[in-house]
């Protein structure tokens, strides 16, 4: 292999997936006070896949670096990433109230990729808070690297990477040479848990804290404006019909047909 893998894994701090989100009183977003946060599930899968690549071919991987863009509290999920197997980490610290949109995230990640000389970026296809599914594609565009999205299987053979994506009726296999960007889907793997022992050991692993300005980004610009966030309308209980005639009558009553 002509070049060992220097894997960059972006991870995002989001409201824990097991918690039902509540809209804040101002109806401008989700209530975040007093709520449990954790690593975004798709990011966790990306981290797990990176670790598995190293476990399968340890000689092929030089390093796994986790990076998070968010408030100071986001260092907690970086500690989890380090406990699970990342070697080093970077927190690009933003203000608590700042919402960093996908394009800004991609621009910051581009700088981190260049700084760390990464040649493979593995990240979740989306975050469960905004569901944008844009950052990986934008990052690949900024870097001018090949990309494979929604990965359900990843195989590294030398400088070539084979990525399987689920499509209607089967799977599509993409092949690209390093460097590249991969976004992962839920079916790729099941992430491991971080043991208490490894969490304690992770405290000794490097966690670098920098500001966006250190990467040449002077201001986090917001291009989107949230006008209002509201609960979906309550669903009415269904009714049981005995035959087709009753079904047609009910559909006519509801003015569906």
UniProtKB/TrEMBL annotation:
Database matches in SMART domains: ETF
Reported cofactor(s): FAD; AMP
Family the entry assigns: Belongs to the ETF beta-subunit/FixA family.
Keywords in alphabetical order: Electron transport, Mitochondrion, Transport
Residue stretches making up the Electron transfer flavoprotein alpha/beta-subunit N-terminal domain: 27-219
Subunit text: Heterodimer of an alpha and a beta subunit.
Molecular function GO terms recorded: electron transfer activity
Name of this chain's protein: Probable electron transfer flavoprotein subunit beta
Superkingdom of the organism of origin: Eukaryota
Function per UniProt: The electron transfer flavoprotein serves as a specific electron acceptor for several dehydrogenases, including five acyl-CoA dehydrogenases, glutaryl-CoA and sarcosine dehydrogenase. It transfers the electrons to the main mitochondrial respiratory chain via ETF-ubiquinone oxidoreductase (ETF dehydrogenase).
Cofactor note text: Binds 1 FAD per dimer.
Organism: Candida oxycetoniae
